[in-house]
Every structure is written in structure tokens, then in C-alpha cells.
Amino acid sequence: MTGIFLRRLGSFVLTLLIASLLIFACMDLLPGNAAAILLGTAARPDTIAALEQQLGLDQPAYIRYLSWVAGAFTGDLGNSASYGVPVAGLIAERLAVTLPLAALALLLAVALGTPMGVWAAARWRKAPDRIASGFSQIGIAIPDFWFGLLLILTFSTGLQWFSAGGFPGWQEPASGLKALVLPAVALALPQAAILTRVTRSAVLDVASEDFIRTAQAKGLTESRILWRHAVRNALVPIITIIGLQFSFLIAGAVLVENVFNLPGIGRLAYQALSQRDLVVIRNVAMFFAGLVIVVNFLVDLSYLWLDPRLRARR
Prior knowledge:
Structural class: mainly alpha
Radius of gyration: 24 Å
CATH architecture of the largest domain: Orthogonal Bundle
CATH topology of the largest domain: MetI-like fold
């Protein structure tokens, strides 16, 4: 058990290191001058040189990389060229919107997709299975930003139950949560469709195992066999896709946050790209990569808890 954990931890640290090297190389070592990109082609050479010194671009590449990594441990990620504030505080401020949005969307996706997938597997080749399969195909086919526009037209412009966009802050938690409902639903639909398909396939695969037939021979009820044996042993692929979905919901919320005008991390990435703020882009890209790596690490650890056979390995 300890050996497996240490190997997973070593792989986690190595993956983070490789990701940071690739992001740094793409942003700092590829041809092109970051200061010139920020200031534009019409900038004077002395102005570009002053900005290079301000951003530390006049230092060797390895010093810039080590300084960036050390700053990540201390919370000093540099200052945004376009906002004029520390990048760490800027990301933390935007995460106060994106993390609750992703958590709410994931909660909706799990609450809808998991029971529907189990329902479809339990009624294989019957009407519930066809309904769940149709929902899965439609949900995967509909882009989340387009579905968000439909929600705005229906519930904001038409029924006027929700605002069309914007975020009032967390001073009044009820108002803040209400502002996230429509974008969370828009994000949740495709993920619920994917989770329905994965849950259905995982439960059907387990249903053909010998221990399920043994449970049936013992006279256990259908619901007990389904939830106690089939679903429990199908959790590994389900947990895997849920972990991937959480990281995708945070990193992939760029379009939905722009549709609903939410000041989240996805909108920050979009604005940084349009403003050519390479300091923000580099750190946001590293945050997205680190988030995916951390979630995958936690999912790997969950396997050890869910599957005793993995704990028995040395």
C-alpha cells in the first residue's frame, strides 16, 4: 500500500515538473519577444527594453524558470501587465466564482447522470434504456454555450426568473447562488449525458460477472444485487469520469462564463489572451494543468480505497 502511494506520488510530482517545463518553454523560450507582443509592433526599442527588465526577461531562461517555480510555492506569481495587480490574487478572486460554478454543475451532472445510467442498465433494452440512450446522445451533441443561450432566452428573457448574466458577489449567498444556476445547468447537461453512458456501460459490464449470478442464486432481491453488488463494483470507471469532469468543468468553462458574463477563471483566461497578458496566461495555463494532474492523482488514490485488490499489491 505504501509503495503504491509513493509511486503515485512520484509520478504526480514528475508530471507537474514536466507540465511546468512545457508551459514555460511555450511562453518564454519559443521565438518571439513577450514584451514586444504586449506593447505591439509600434513600440520603441527603449520602451520594450524597459518592459523586458520589469518582467525579468533580460535574465537567463533557467533563472526565470526557477524564479517562477519558487514564486509558485510562496504565492508570488508576478504582476499582471494589463490589470496591474498580483496574478495570485487575481486567480484567487476569479476562483471564488469558478469553483462554486464547477461544483454546482458537477453536483447536477452526478445527480442526473448516475441514477439515469443505473436505471438504463437495470432495464436493458427496454423503454428506460432507450430513453437514457436518447438523452445521452442529445446531451453530448448540444454545445454547452448554445444550451446556455437557450436558457437565457427561456428563463431570463421570457420567464424572467433569472438574470441574463453577471455576478452580484457573495455578500448575499442566495443571490450569488441564483446567478450560477443557469450556467451550471448549461455546463451540467453534456457531463450528465456522458456520465449516463459511462454508468450504464460500467454497470452492464459488472452485471455479467460470476459474483452477480452467485448473488442471484442466493435469492437476493434485484435492488440489492443492483446497488450492493453491481453499482458498487462499477464505481472505478464512474469515479474516473467524475474526476475528469470536475477538472474539465473548471478548465472548460471559458465559453459559458463569457456567455453569462461571469468573472471566473475561464473569462480571465479569455481576457488575458485578448490583452496579450502573457504573465497571466502562463500562470492560468499552469493552474489548469496542475488541477488536472491533482484530480487524476486523487482519482488514482480513490482506486486504492474502492478496489481491495489494488491494496493487496506490493
